[in-house]
Amino acid sequence: MEQNQTKRIVLAITGGIAAYKAAELLRLLMKQGIAVQVVMTEAATHFITPTTMQGLSGKPVFTDQWDASVPNSMAHINLSRAADAIVIAPASADFIAKLAHGLADDLLATLCLARNCPLIITPAMNREMWLNAATQRNIAQLID
Predict the structure, then answer these.
(1) In this predicted structure, what is the pLDDT of residue 56?
(2) Who is most buried in 1, 61, 73, 130, counting CB within 10 A?
């Protein structure tokens, strides 16, 4: 008989006004029985607080690549190995550009580069930013 294993998702929040919607997404994922670990960029913390996301998830929120409380300061490795998928919601134009160009200057960027699981990107930005040629090139590069 096959065991029903809990799915494990990293919910990654980047900086943008749509960050407030991550609280509802977290609630919906947890309602489905999915174990959710929240990671936030520094920019995301200007739109919704780690305290809010910790209160909703019941787990510490990761925001810092160099968090001394993480064994060996390897949060990006530990989180990647424990995840069945990484969902970036919202994904800002800035973060999409980081991904497209392989930058690794914060916890979330290094987590995405170190992953061995599916990456789901949900872009969120105003129309002009979305239609900008640079953003469209970055999206096309990520799709390839």
Answers:
(1) 98
(2) 61
